[in-house]
């Protein structure tokens, strides 16, 4: 099985067959992760740099664990305390990576398009986007899709609701691209100030500002974090007001005439977008998402390494 691309820069560039290949490969790796010995030699003698210009805990640890499970040699780079804080440019970093003969780079950056820039200057190195600005977060969308498929048996025809800060969410954009490619229906809900004005026409998704109506429609609700750090103006009155209007509570879910699946890409602002008794309930598959993240990232690394060697 092969991917049609040398890099994973975003879901937008992937074919539906690529997505199916990644999800199928992740199923095999999830079986490996259940064994007493979880390590396989698939990427032995492959050197991977984790290039994180932006703080991350879950994504970085998930990638590191995936790399170790595949027996790769890993180098961890964090912008704080590095040459970047002394004024090194991204192009300087590119040239340093070139001279080190690195095979793969996993990159997170606050600037949209940074991994694409890297891929143009490092043609022989596989680049994996671990989140760029407000653009995309492809492996998160893949693990979300894998989790939905595992829970509901497939993606085609499923009704998926994304709730919250759509405007600043790279997770939302990657999810929209992936789910629509795989035949799912997508609806967005949240305050009008946090949903881009023309997104419905541009991306072929529905928008419903009434949260209860939106929840009544969906099979799965993926609750997104309010990204206060990316908002350069006041877009809603307070977190308390947000919770009252768009927070997911046990009471709200109990008022629906069906049980829906609850997801969250993390980290959770408990008591803001999601109450604790929902996050920790039987309806939630948040911990399964975390577990599936390692299998998905193993699959992506393995498939891209295969493309490099072919």
Brief descriptors of the model:
single chain, 310 residues, alpha/beta, Rossmann fold, five-stranded parallel β-sheet, 12 helices, 41% helix, globular
Can you characterise this structure?
This protein folds into 2 domains: 11-137 and 293-309, Rossmann fold; 138-289, Rossmann fold. Helices cover 41% and strands 14% of the residues. It is built from 12 helices and 9 strands. The strands form 2 sheets. The protein has a 5-stranded parallel beta sheet with strand order 7-6-5-8-9, with helices on both faces. The chain has a 4-stranded parallel beta sheet with strand order 2-1-3-4, with helices on both faces. The longest helix is centred in the last third of the chain and has 24 residues, at 286-309. It starts with 15 loop residues before the first helix and ends with a helix.
